[in-house]
Amino acid sequence: QSMDSTLHYIHNDSDLSTNSSFSPEEERKSKVQDVVPQALLDQYLSMTDPSRAQTVDTEIAKHCAYSLPGVALTLGRQNWHCLKDTYETLASDMQWKVRRTLAFSIHELAVILGDQLTAGDLVPVFNGFLKDLDEVRIGVLKHLHDFLKLLHVDKRREYLYQLQEFLVTDNSRNWRFRAELAEQLILLLDLYSARDIYDYLRPIAFSLCADKVSSVRWISYKLVSEMVKKLYLASTPTFVVDLMNELVEKFCRCHKWSGRQTFVFICQTISEDDCLPMDQFA
């Protein structure tokens, strides 16, 4: 009804726990709220009814998925229990376009719901999208940093082991997927420690630097230069020294001219972006 009341609902941290063993009467009550007319919400929730998709509009589930963050924002996180079942139904919809729509907005929903509800209700859906078709995975990948920064540090570290999987796509010609991965990794450098960057992100960055598509390689040069900068500023100097030694070994002394060219381009980017003091660079 007013912006103030909406903001009050968003920032209210009270979470209502849901019980999966509801009776039909309790189930109906669990969908009751007092923010919008109940009939309007009931109409919206009925969009996931399979019979409607067949008789009313085959795209209705996609429209429902597209609107869900807006509905969640209006109802507020304390009324998430009204939408949870509908969200899970849409997240397992047979149509990939419906799942793709949710994948592109899951980071927005996480902001609305807060960390507790995100960890309990959104992380399992997020994990499912990571293993989905490329058309769905790209939605998660494009906002990977936006979602992971909302998680607790321990939970966030669990995804380090899965980042490598983004190098594998259904279609190897899908180079934009790898380019997006490189872009996201640049942002992710701020979320992880120097050791995690060296152990997990470095191998992916080196793999992307040797990609067959030049657009992917150019973004990857920027990624490696930012990695050098981040590791140089870390408290443990051995990481940046080891990284630079590996750059020399892997690219500068490469028997292929393309590898040696990569080394020159990485040096250019490190120099232009002032990632190292000049004496260290030399």
TrEMBL record:
The keyword Membrane does not apply. Residues 11-32 are annotated as: Disordered. Keywords: Repeat. SUPFAM superfamilies: ARM repeat. InterPro entries: ARM-like (IPR011989), ARM-type_fold (IPR016024), PP2A_Regulatory_Subunit_A (IPR051023). GO terms for cellular component: cytoplasm. The keyword Oxidoreductase does not apply. GO terms for molecular function: protein phosphatase regulator activity. PANTHER family: SERINE/THREONINE-PROTEIN PHOSPHATASE PP2A 65 KDA REGULATORY SUBUNIT, SERINE_THREONINE-PROTEIN PHOSPHATASE 4 REGULATORY SUBUNIT 1. This is PP4R1 phosphatase. The gene is Ppp4r1_2.
